[in-house]
TrEMBL record:
UniProt name for this protein: EBNA-1 nuclear protein
D-glutamate N-acetyltransferase-like C-terminal domain segment(s): 144-336
Domain of life: Bacteria
UniProt cross-references to InterPro entries, sorted A to Z: DgcN-like, DgcN-like_C, DgcN-like_N, P-loop_NTPase
PANTHER family, per database record: DUF1611 DOMAIN-CONTAINING PROTEIN, GLL3100 PROTEIN
Domain D-glutamate N-acetyltransferase-like N-terminal: 60-138
Amino acid sequence: MNIQTSLDVAAGALQLPQPYLLFLGDTTIRGYAKTAFGLRDWAPEKCVGEYALPGATVSVGLEQLAPAEARARGARSMLIGVANSGGVIPESWMPALFEALDAGLDIVSGMHMRLAEMPELAARAERLGRQLIDVRHPPAGLPVGTGRKRSGKRLLTVGTDCALGKKYTALALARAFTARGVDADFRATGQTGIMIAGGGVPMDAVVSDFEAGAAETVSPDAADDHWDVVEGQGSLYHPAYAAVSLGLLHGSQPDVIVVCHEPGREEILGSPGYLLPSIEETIDLNLRLGARTNPAIRCAGVSYNTAHMAEDEAIALMAADSERLGLPVADPIRGGDAFARLVDSCLA
C-alpha cells in the first residue's frame, strides 16, 4: 500500500523523530485517544510504549514507561496521542511534557494548541536543544477550490460522527485495493493519518474558505485507473465540525463514499443531546451535497466499528443491516467475506 500525499514534494514529507512514546495524558474518554490507537494499530513498529497520568482510564495496551525509561529503550520523542475537544493542552500535562524534554525526548503534537506558543515549554526546549513539533499546521499557499473535475478515481470515508473509524476504514481499503493489484494511495487529512503517512493536510486547521481547495490539493489529477482513498473528517451532522466535512466532500469530489458508523453510539461525541443520524440519512445527505461537485457520486457500502461487540453479535448485526440497506456492511478490522464484498462494491 502506498501511504503518501500530494504535498510530499511541494511541502516536504514530515520527518518525525521516531520511535515514539505515546502520551495519553489524563484521558478518560476512549474516543479522545484515537491518535494513540491509530499509531498502535497502523504503525506499531514506531511505538515503544505509553505514558499516562494518574486519573487516566484509557490505555492502548502498550507497556507503561516513564520518559527516561522510554529514552533508554530508544524512543526519540513523546507523541501526544490525544485528540480532545478543541485540541487543548491542559496545564495539568505540563510537568509530564517537561519531564519528557528533561529525559532527552522531543515532543510531537497534533493538537490545535501549538507547543511552540507555550512560553515555558518553548524556553525549556530551546535550553535543552529539544524539538517541539506541531503537526496540525496547514501548508502555506493553499488555493480556493475550483470544482474542476480531475482525472483518476476517488473514495472518501464519511461518518455519522467523529472518532468511529473513517481513518481505519480508509487505510484498510487502500491496503485491500493494492492487494488486488489496484494502484491506490491513502491520502491523509488529519493529524493521526499524517503521523502514519508522513505527510498530508490537517483539514480541521485550514481556514474555511480554503477547505475545498486543500482537499483538491490532497488528491490531484491522476491516471484514470488510479484510486485515491481519502481519509474523512467529522460528520455533516456534527454541530461543531460539519464545515470541515462539507469542504472535504466538495473538494475531494469522491466517485465513491463509504459510510462509517459505530453501532450502539446514540449521541454525537462531545455534544450531549445531539442524537446520531441514521445511516440512511447519512447516505442521503452526503450524496445530495457531494453531487454538487461530482454528480456521479455513489455509496458503495457501510463500515462498522464493532470493537466493543462479541464476534457472533457483530456478524449477525452486519448481515441484518446489509440486507436492510441493500449494501455491503463490514468491519474492516474483522475482515472476512463481508469486507471482501465491500471492496468489490467500491471497485465495481
